[in-house]
Specification:
There is one protein chain. 0% of the residues lie in helices and 43% in strands. With 190 residues, the protein is mostly beta strands. The chain has a single domain (3-12, 34-187), classed as Immunoglobulin-like (Sandwich), CATH 2.60.40.1190. The strands form 2 sheets. Strands 5, 6, 7, 8, 11, 12 and 13 form a 7-stranded antiparallel sheet that branches. Strands 1-9-10-4-3-2 form a 6-stranded antiparallel sheet, with no helix packed on it. The two termini are 28 Å apart.
Length: 190
């Protein structure tokens, strides 16, 4: 059973409409629907670093599509807290690239975990837009659900994911990063 983060609220830094890449079909014809998205990355257990908590360890990322919705499930090594301790922050991102050589992703689903709860964002080529879907915490991770059109043209995309976690402390602070896959990007399968 999942629970909506922050009371079902989502947040963004700039309000805006979701981007769309739909192409109108020729008069009298219907555009064929693309096959559904399916993919998975499995990541080794414990590679977030010795000082990071289990919930900062990405174990699996599963994008999938049902109709016009894309659901991306990020499985973690432990239950993410609904609210992080006052000295911790955590970011979970799923990047979608249209160009293998690009340094920055074209689209990014991002969840920001703080002592106040979790907030979901969508980064597009135009910057942050209002998050157009739902974000849920579950016992083993989290799920982003957005309209497929919010992620641009996924037919030729590559993707990857990451978790960044940090804890401030005295005399020192700790930070970890876990990538899935550990290096590179994975092609979207259809």
């Amino acid at each position: 059973m999942s629970t909506p983060a922050a009371g079902g609220r989502s947040a963004s830094t700039v309000a805006g409409a979701s981007p769309s890449t739909a192409v109108a079909p020729a008069a009298g014809s219907a555009a064929p629907a693309p096959p559904p998205l399916r993919a998975s990355i499995t990541d080794p257990a414990g590679d977030q670093g010795q000082l990071g908590p289990a919930y900062a360890d990405v174990r699996e990322v599963r994008p999938g599509q049902s109709g016009d919705l894309v659901k991306v499930t990020v499985v973690l090594g432990g239950r993410p807290p609904a609210k992080l301790p006052s000295n911790e922050v955590m970011g979970v991102g799923v990047n979608f690239f249209h160009d293998q050589s690009a340094a920055e992703s074209d689209y990014q689903l991002f969840a920001d975990g703080e002592p106040d709860g979790w907030f979901a964002y969508l980064q597009t080529p135009s910057g942050f837009v209002k998050y157009p879907g739902t974000f849920d915490l579950a016992s083993d991770g989290m799920t982003f659900t957005v309209p497929a059109s919010a992620l641009g043209d996924l037919r030729h995309s590559l993707w990857s994911a990451f978790v960044d976690w940090s804890r401030s402390g005295t005399p020192s602070s700790t930070a970890t990063t876990d990538h899935a896959p550990d290096a590179g990007r994975v092609a979207v399968s259809r």
